[in-house]
Each structure stands twice: as C-alpha cells, then as structure tokens.
TrEMBL record:
Annotated keywords: Disulfide bond, Glycoprotein, Secreted
Location in the cell: Secreted
GO CC terms of this entry: fibrinogen complex
Species: Megalops atlanticus (Tarpon)
UniProt-recorded name of the protein: Fibrinogen C-terminal domain-containing protein
Superkingdom of source: Eukaryota
SUPFAM superfamilies reported for this sequence: Fibrinogen C-terminal domain-like
Predominant place of localization: secreted
Annotated Fibrinogen C-terminal domain residues: 84-318
Cited Pfam families: Fibrinogen_C
UniProt-listed GO biological process terms: blood coagulation, common pathway; fibrinolysis; platelet aggregation; positive regulation of heterotypic cell-cell adhesion
GO molecular function: extracellular matrix structural constituent; protein-macromolecule adaptor activity
C-alpha cells in the first residue's frame, strides 16, 4: 500500500527525463529495503516476546545497536540463533545432571520431540537427575482445573516449594524417548515420608487423552496406582491404561457421573480412584467430605487422609542403572 503510493507519487511528480525516473526507482528500492529491515525487526521482537511469555524471564544476550534509518536489510538468516542464556542443551534434568551437576532448581529443557524449550523443576537430590512433573506443598495453587490447564501446565515455577502441574503435553514429550521411572514422594502432616516407584511410566498423546501406562511397582507406600492388592478394587480403581479426565472432560469409567468433578482434580480416573494426588488440599490430614477427594494415596494413609507434600518425578531407567537404585525415601 505504502509502496503503491510512493510509486504513484513518483509517476505524478517525475518529469519524463530518464535520470529522474531512475532516481525515483532508486528511492523506492531503498524504501523497500528498509521495509524488509523493519519486518525482520518485528520478527525478532515477536520471537523475544514469545520467549519472555513462556519463561517469565529473558535477558537479551546480544542487544543489537540501533539501526540507522537507511541501513540496508537484515536478511532472515541473520536472526539471532538461540544463544547465550537461551541455549538449551538438555532433553531432561538427568542430562543436565550428567553434564553440570547443578543444584536443584528451575531449568529450561527441551525434550527431542518438544517444539520449544520449557521450564522444569529439577530435583538434583535423591540420586539426582529427576524432572519433576507434579508438586504439592501448601495448597496455594488450585488444582481443580479444566482440560486446557492440565494440558498446558499450571502453577508457579519460581521457588523450590512452588506447586505446579508440568502439563500433559510436556510430560508426554518428556517420556517419548526411552523408558522412564516414575517416583512418587509423599509426606504426611507429621512429617513422615514415603515413596512409590513405577517402571516404564509413559502417557499417550492428546488424541488418546493422555492415557496412562506403567509397569512394575516397587516402594514402601503401596501400589495405589493399581488400586492395592484386591482384585475387585483393582478392577474399579486401577489407573493403569485409564485416560486423563478433568472437570470439563470426562473420560473415566464411571458412567453415572464425573470422577474429576467429584474428586476436584485432573487425573487418570477409573471409577474412581485409589490415588488422587491432584485432589483437594486439606490442611489437617484426616478430612470429612461427601467424596474421597483429598490428596490421597490409599495404600499408605487411606482414602480419608489428605497428604501434605507430594512430588511426582521422572528419570530415564538407564540413568538408574548407572547410578544405583535411586530408591531413597527423600520427600
Ligand atoms: Ca464419567
């Protein structure tokens, strides 16, 4: 549009002399180049804004000097590469641990199958290398949320004791390559700790509603994900091969109602559960309610006790083989 006006202005004002026409064309060419330069600046700005929004913090490592008005174009190939503190080498926290052995904290990772890097909490204690996918600590974050929140992740990603759900899309990407161990750390209101581990933990993609799969259980808190040791309970509450449900997307096996609605969280509900780690946060442990909707691990403290701390964290099985059991009871 701008260019058309410029060309029009040229054709009206220019005399038929060739030199002036050439001059005008030259000016148009210069303006075209500066438009391309501005378009590229806009691209860089949008790219920086995207990073800022995704990761809360972002420092320009290579701030470009201000451009002169008639400076020639910046070709797209000169867009800044991911560099400086934006470099993301690690597919998960185990890779970061192997490389740098840093302390526990929030780091940016990029699993092979993920489109963009994202922020995770890395637990570098307990053998190190754990990527944390869920954390409950103080009840400050509401876990009774919709499908899109559980898909994309929610909560706070700043302090070590922040509560969050990493997001089913991120968890799916994280577990795509190789086999992973899931460790669940629990703590009750007296400060007693316990844990459960599952081999070959993975979840399907969104098309299959993030269906849960896991293999062998080990640990001391009991196999609540499979509903304990009774066959009848296992049939109705085992979470293995269940799809994910939220209050607005019911994929459970409870035909008369919605487990997610009753139990106040997103989870792989059957009809309904023996483990409800995304449930409602009750501040005193034992609770009374219409439904067993607390932060529950049935095989340890029962359905009517809501836990104080929970952590769900994953690590490649290979990592465990090279480091020993990793079976510490750290919460
Ligand atoms: Ca249902």
């Amino acid at each position: 549009m701008l260019l058309e006006l410029l060309l029009l202005a040229c054709s009206v004002s220019a005399s038929p002399r060739l030199s002036e026409e050439e001059e005008c064309l030259l000016e148009v060419e210069t303006l075209k180049r500066s438009i391309r330069g501005l378009e590229n600046k806009l691209l860089i700005g949008a790219w920086q804004l995207k990073n800022l929004r995704q990761h809360n913090f972002f420092h320009l490592s290579h701030r470009r000097p201000p451009q002169r008005h008639n400076e020639t174009t910046l070709e797209p190939t000169s867009l800044p590469k991911i560099s400086g503190n934006l470099i993301v080498y690690d597919h998960d926290c185990s890779m970061l641990y192997d490389r740098l052995k840093p302390p526990s904290g929030f780091y940016r990772i990029k699993p092979k199958s993920a489109e963009d890097p994202f922020l995770v909490y890395c637990d570098m204690s307990d053998g190190g290398g754990w990527t944390v996918i869920q954390q409950r600590r103080n009840g400050k974050v509401d876990f009774n949320r919709d499908w899109s929140d559980y898909r994309d992740g929610f909560g706070n990603f700043k302090r070590n004791n922040d509560e969050f759900w990493l997001g089913n899309e991120h968890i799916h990407a994280l577990l795509q390559d190789g086999e992973h161990l899931l460790k669940i750390d629990l703590m009750d209101w007296k400060g007693e700790k316990n844990y459960a581990m599952y081999e070959n933990f993975r979840i399907a993609d969104e098309k299959d509603k993030y269906r849960l799969q896991y293999g062998l259980y080990s640990g001391r808190a009991g196999d609540a994900l499979s509903g304990g040791s009774h066959m009848v309970e296992q049939w109705s509450v085992s979470h293995n091969s269940m799809q994910f449900s939220t209050r607005d997307e019911d994929h459970d096996r409870y035909l008369q109602g919605s487990c997610a609605e009753e139990n106040k969280g997103g989870w792989w509900y059957n009809r309904c559960h023996a483990a409800n780690l995304n449930g409602r946060f009750y501040r005193r442990g034992e609770y009374k309610a219409r439904h067993d909707n607390g932060v529950v691990w049935m095989t340890w403290r029962g359905l009517w006790y809501s836990l104080r701390h929970t952590t769900m964290k994953v690590r490649p099985l290979v990592f465990m083989d090279s480091m020993g059991s990793g079976a510490g009871a750290e919460g």
